[in-house]
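Justification of computing resources. Each target in the renewal requires a structure prediction run like the one illustrated here; the chain below, 641 residues long, is used simply to show the kind of job we budget for.
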Amino acid sequence: IDIFKGAGVSVKNCIIRDNKSLWGGAGIVCYNDGEGYFKLSGCSIFNNHSYGPGGGIALADNSTMEFDTINKNSIYSNFANWGCDFHKSNEDLPLRIVLDSSTVKYPDTYFFSSIQQSGFQIDDLDVQIDNAVLTPYDGDIYVDPVNGDNNNTGISEDQPVKSIAWAYSKIAVDSLDKNTIHLANGIYSDTTNNEKFPLNIRPFINVIGQSRDGVILDGNRNVYILKGNNEISDYSFQRMTLQGGRKPLYEPWEVKATLAYIYNFNTRYIFDSVVFRNSYSTGSNGILTSIRSDSLVVRNCEFKDNFGGADLSSWTNEGQRVFLSNTVFSNLEIDTANPKQFSWSFAPNDRGVQVVQNCLFKDNSNITFLKNMQDGHAYCINSTFVNNALDLDYATVRIFDGNISFYNSIFYNNRYQPQLEIGVGEWQQMVHSHLNIYNSLVENGEESIYMNPSCWHDDTVWCHVHYDSTNIDADPQFLGMWNHPYQLTDNSPCIDAGTIANLPDFIELEDYDLAGNPRVYGDSIDMGTYEWDPTIVGFHEIGPGSNSDASQTLIKASPNPFYQDTYIEVEPKQLSTEARVEVYDNYGKLVKTLITTQLNNKVKVLWRGDDNSGNPLPSGIYHVVMFYGDKEVESLKVVKR
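Resulting structure tokens:
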């Protein structure tokens, strides 16, 4: 029902259900601009779904309404990106809401929200509810898009609910002991399990998938997936794939395309082992957009096959920090339908601090790393930039009105030369830009840095470059094969050429590189995303410069690292021999026996990352060991994420 400037409108004894809105107020939307009144009596408003605010009711533009206190209404089981049951955005008009029934008896802002002009919650709703559809469960909730049912309890794997949105409504928020929503493998979308995107993120709740590649949240090009409203904190999303975000209409008034949109002042939240793919972003937004957030952690993630805008756009205030590690940005393409024709993989903006470690930027069509706006500082450690700037003549890295310091990084084989550009914004001319490079491999050396003409203005030099004597210009000698082709070979000049001592004091190195190997091996840390390690069986023996033959490797694992399962392939050194292949954890404990048989041919077995009892093992490093009798023949390190 759309109430537009209606004087004396009354809705009585109606059922408003199963409606869908692309904007707001799927059940009732009211924007009467204070003209007259709107009274609601004896109505039931349920199972409505809005992509915008107010799944049940949305009030805007100084609208007000009266809830009948005798012939009471019920508002429950609605879904929206803000105020699932009720949303109000007129801060000068407090409201009393009296209901017979609602989703829960004591609703927080997930269910009933009231905001001021900047989107921050205000406490001006007097809510009185007699009955509740749900009693919040203070524990973990299980979701299965195939076998689940929203009539189930959801409190065990045997009784899963069907949708994440319903689990969000059902779970209790416990700030002292976080609860978790567990997602079984499957596709979550409007066409598979009737999922209600975008999910209205709740604080102090972890959403964890069974496996990164098995749990797929798909917007089907209709809607984005996640919405973090102002001042939501202490949550995480782990082990899942987000895809198919809304395709933009390229209208100036539209909500920008994205997959995850995190509003102002979300704090202490994590994306771990999440794939963001096959989606659009527009303007300054990213596939993952973070606005003025503090202590955001993005680790072990992958952004790939996206279009336009940015993969990750992070806006931070002074004192706020963002931590990005062990993440891959690849195949970001220009959105040819967007007349601005720009794209960038990572855009850290404004006055905060961004720390980037062990990240790989590869095969992107345009700008890869853009730092701009209002001073601020980005620190990029042990990252590799390769095969970027494929379509337009823009440097792989651009710094405008900001500061970047690179340590132990590699810039190689990027199409556009020079690879790095520094300048200041013509509209501003107030902020100095700084580019510092230490212990890094830069193809073509210092000549690969372009000083934009904006660096000189009003007799002042606004751009400052420090290119340290520890940098080198050489072929990094990448491995060029397998799942991690940008690992280093035995003769790479990047081995032990990095620095630890010169890093800023507040930066803590990650324990593992992008392939899951220990970050520091040998005399010092290496340059680039990967650490060379000669103890990795089957790696150094077949790299360029080696005299060994690949057939000498008896054990192989694919994929490695893996998330859910991996194939272990064993080739016998001698035929008709009793062999045993076992898996040990990093502490030397036997966790899984894979093979106990006579080997006459090559054997390939599937290991599901479990122990001998079938229980899933935690993420970490494991060792596949092959024995002939009691003699250890060979071992291979594998990494479960």
